[in-house]
Amino acid sequence: MIILGIETSCDETAAAVVVDGIQILSSVVSSQIEVHHPYGGVVPELASRKHMEAIVPVVTEALAVSGMDSKQLDAIAVTQGPGLVGALLVGFCFAKSFAFALDIPWIGVNHLEGHINSLFLEENPPPFPFVALLASGGHTSIYHVTSHTTFELVGQTRDDAAGEAFDKVAKMLGLGYPGGEVIDRLATQGDSENIVFPRPFLDKSTFDFSFSGLKTAVRRYIQKNMDTYQQQIPDIAAGFQEAVVDVLSFKVVHAAMVKGCEHIALVGGVAANNRLRERVRQDADLKGLTVHIPCIDLCGDNAAMIAAIGYHYLIAGTVSGFCDDVYSRARVR
Ligand code: KG4
Ligand code: ZN
């Protein structure tokens, strides 16, 4: 089944052509980072306008790279939520109209389920059941995954998402938006033991997370050291990152042990973090667990993962209707 995937939930306009939910023929991502960078975060109205400009060229390019004609598509899968409503509407309305014009089925899917299904676009996907840590700009959750479309929520953040904490700390340090990648890079030049920040909820009593206190601890450190912190930015980045990584790695490995799973997966934008990838592999190794992490391009938002999850709904006979609408907030089922 040849599926066109479309993703416009936040600040990436993406389209991909994927065969049977596993084989990527093309995956085009047009980022709006430059547009939002001066504001230190995504400006929803600007995001919608940029999606409007980009959607047709991005879909056209995805089809061209795949070598497929639109008439060869079997179905369309599009992100229905969660995300910015105005941004979602661009991809969603485009997908509806394109499916209507081509007279093929279409399905609106959950972005978070898409991130988890990004694992199946790689060579060695995890066998079911497995435990997945989904860490992105908007979400930080642990799921017990028993099929492509069945997820039990094990724990989640009670305030900020991990990626949001990276972005806010980067903003405090004057490093711009988005912050994860730059903190990841600067941390390699610092020493995480020079400035030690608190590890929120680092105990076995809960699988939930909390990152807002850690963010405040960094802010306080900057305020107390106004004259010197500029010279300490690599150490602050390393200390902050180590605190986040400590908590994420401990919780996901512990969740796998409690759930009796031998396989762990990391997905979402924060799964691109080099220290997190290294640390979870080390911690899992000590417990005899296997770790699965998509390549960097598939960690961030993309449309191949949307086509991948769409495939599993479509083969089960689930399709969307023209009265369906987007949603801004939702958990995976
Ligand atoms: O999954 P994603 O692309 O979009 C959402 O669904 O939110 O995740 C974006 C988030 C941003 O907060 C970004 O700062 C973070 O992922 N991120 C990283 C890294 N690359 C992206 N965080 C830590 N280290 C990275 N290397
Ligand atoms: Zn995402």
Which short descriptors sum up this protein?
five-stranded mixed sheet; binds zinc ion; globular; 2 domains; Nucleotidyltransferase, domain 5; alpha/beta; 333 residues
CATH class of the largest domain: Alpha Beta
Described by strand count, sense and barrel closure, the largest sheet is: 5 strands, mixed
> Which structural class matches the secondary elements?
alpha/beta
- Mean of residue pLDDT? 96
- Any guess at the CATH architecture of the largest domain? 2-Layer Sandwich
Output the radius of gyration. 20 Å
Low-pLDDT windows of residues: none
Bound ligands: 5'-O-[(R)-(carboxyoxy)(hydroxy)phosphoryl]adenosine, zinc ion
The succession of helices and strands, N to C, reads EEEHHEHEHEEEHHHHEHEHH
CATH topology value of the largest domain: Nucleotidyltransferase, domain 5
- Give the count of helical stretches: 11
State which percent range the strand residues make up. 15-25%
In spatial order, strands of the major sheet run 3-2-1-4-5
Into how many domains do the coordinates divide? 2
In helices, the fraction of residues equals 40-55%
Description:
It is a single chain. The chain is α/β, with parallel strands linked by helices and 333 residues long. The protein folds into 2 domains: 2-116 and 299-315, 2-Layer Sandwich (Nucleotidyltransferase, domain 5), CATH 3.30.420.40; 126-293, Nucleotidyltransferase, domain 5 (2-Layer Sandwich), CATH 3.30.420.40. The protein has 11 helices and 10 strands. A 5-stranded mixed β-sheet has the order 3-2-1-4-5, with helices on both faces. Strands 8-7-6-9-10 form a 5-stranded mixed β-sheet, sandwiched between helices. Helix 6 crosses helix 8 and helix 8 packs parallel to helix 9 (274-286). The mean pLDDT is 96. The structure holds 5'-O-[(R)-(carboxyoxy)(hydroxy)phosphoryl]adenosine and zinc ion. Zinc ion (ZN) is lined by residues 111, 115, 136, 268, 301. 5'-O-[(R)-(carboxyoxy)(hydroxy)phosphoryl]adenosine binds at residues 10, 136-138, 163, 166-167, 178-181, 184, 268-270, 272-273, 300-301.
